[in-house]
């Protein structure tokens, strides 16, 4: 799971390659490198710079080359799969000083290819699966093939996923790209042609793109872009003009993107709702022109997602089933690897911030092949693969989310899902009055979110009690159990404290044994029909010497004492309360991570968009 950006232009390309890599850093940030076509005094045709760590480190390493006039280059940011993040394993990889290559994806049959190439005399300098491709392309060139044919015959030998950019030292004005299973866009510029893992990397030079499909190969030569399929037959892809702006992704006054994104939630929620509700109801057509005709026939919903998005799906299950629509939720990596009994008229709903999560994309494909009737994506990136591959779409409109820990993507997913619940369940048990009540709550949601965020300093004051802890438990019931799960995920991913969530009723079936004065227990306590049962669970923790931190509705009537600290959250209607109750947990995790001094926006071992299985 990596990012690539490549450029052939009539201008120097190094600044664009570095800027592009910074935009793609969400895809991986273990190590990064650049190869420029730039003949060196020692006879090398490529100037290659690679460094372990963030793009900023690569940028410093390239400081002396800032004035490079090279007008062709390829660049890569890596999330290690095969081989540790070392200089040797960092891309671009080069074969015999003649071919340079960057790769996003995983080559499953690399070992066999590697053995063959070693037998043919090639010496490997990395442990990566990628290096087989660059040597194989070199071997094909030595057999007399042109670069395009060499790339074609190489990719035909591959099993797995790839998006590659390739340069040949003998053809300084040419770059070839190819993809299968990993995303790739081709930027159409006035001054050249470009390749990248996504459009954001190239917005400073173009807004016009071809979005390549599996098996496509692109040949960019002297400003001309030619697209073919894997058999080198010309293919046509429509020009897609991106509406993304480069500005929204800037940090501004905030210390971290995560904090900025938490603070943006009220606006993001307002944007998600805008133009989708009117009077007392959710508008028809929010997911596409004919959505009501389709929704009226539905008999079941199958939600598929990963991580934070999966937890949003678990909340939505409560909502769908409350109003009569059967709903299953499954982690995408599990869904994609088993057989399915397909319910009649079942809508597959994929949830994803990025729209590029490979397991979610894979699961959607499996679902369609298994015979599920229709697909709908709730997604934040309009130009993503998931959006392109779904029948219907409901965009979350959170704006760019850069912090690896999802915050505004989650709350806007929940708001979008609540709109979807209305659009679907009014054909089931959701009455007009109930829909009107939900719409009223949704209208109040952005202001309520802003109110909770404005109390950030109160949540900051709680963080100290976690800073010396190794473990924490999170408890919730009903639609707030997934909120406990998401709160635990936030804490563990950015503070590295081991945090687990339990349905509060499960506590007595095992996890209670863990409770002592060193195990903080966080509970989410909205004022709903499950509150009395939750209070019993809280008492059970206190009786074992545990320390409780309870985020409770103003009207929940739970007493503060020395073992139970109550943080009162605005009184809020039960249906939207999961969207409000996650906010203090996001802020708590953020401030614990600050104390622990972790890299909040880029926690170790993670990446924003998970494009490997
Ligand atoms: O882009 P997606 O929503 O498909 O990503 C799924 C997960 O990788 C993601 O939600 C992850 O769990 C969060 N970044 C964690 O905060």
Outline:
By secondary structure, the chain is α/β, with parallel strands linked by helices. The chain folds into three domains: 3-249, 4-Layer Sandwich (Glutamine Phosphoribosylpyrophosphate, subunit 1, domain 1), CATH 3.60.20.10; 252-453, Rossmann fold; 455-600, Rossmann fold, CATH 3.40.50.10490.
Notes on the protein architecture:
This protein is an alpha/beta fold. It folds into three domains: 3-249, Aminohydrolase, N-terminal nucleophile (Ntn) domain (Glutamine Phosphoribosylpyrophosphate, subunit 1, domain 1, 4-Layer Sandwich), CATH 3.60.20.10; 252-453, 3-Layer(aba) Sandwich (Rossmann fold), CATH 3.40.50; 455-600, 3-Layer(aba) Sandwich (Rossmann fold). It is built from 18 helices and 26 strands. Strands 3-2-4-1-10-9-11-14 form an eight-stranded antiparallel beta sheet, covered by helices on one side. It has a six-stranded antiparallel beta sheet with strand order 5-6-7-8-12-13. Helix 4 (131-142) crosses helix 5 (147-156), helix 7 runs antiparallel to helix 14 (432-453) and helix 15 (456-463) packs across helix 18 (577-596). The mean pLDDT is 92. The chain binds 5-amino-5-deoxy-1-O-phosphono-D-mannitol (M6R). The site of 5-amino-5-deoxy-1-O-phosphono-D-mannitol has 16 residues, from helix 9 and helix 16.
What is this structure's SSE topology?
Elements: E1 3-9, H1 14-24, E2 31-37, E3 46-52, H2 55-61, E4 72-78, E5 93-95, E6 99-107, H3 110-119, H4 131-142, H5 147-156, E7 160-168, E8 174-180, E9 185-188, E10 192-196, E11 208-211, E12 217-221, E13 224-228, E14 239-241, H6 257-263, H7 265-273, E15 277-278, E16 281-282, H8 291-295, E17 300-305, H9 307-322, E18 327-331, H10 332-335, E19 346-352, H11 358-370, E20 374-379, H12 385-389, E21 392-395, H13 408-425, H14 432-453, H15 456-463, E22 471-476, H16 481-495, E23 498-503, E24 520-525, H17 531-543, E25 547-553, E26 564-569, H18 577-596
Parallel strand pairs: 17-18, 17-19, 19-20, 20-21, 22-23, 22-24, 24-25, 25-26
Antiparallel strand pairs: 1-4, 1-10, 2-3, 2-4, 5-6, 6-7, 7-8, 8-12, 9-10, 9-11, 11-14, 12-13, 15-16
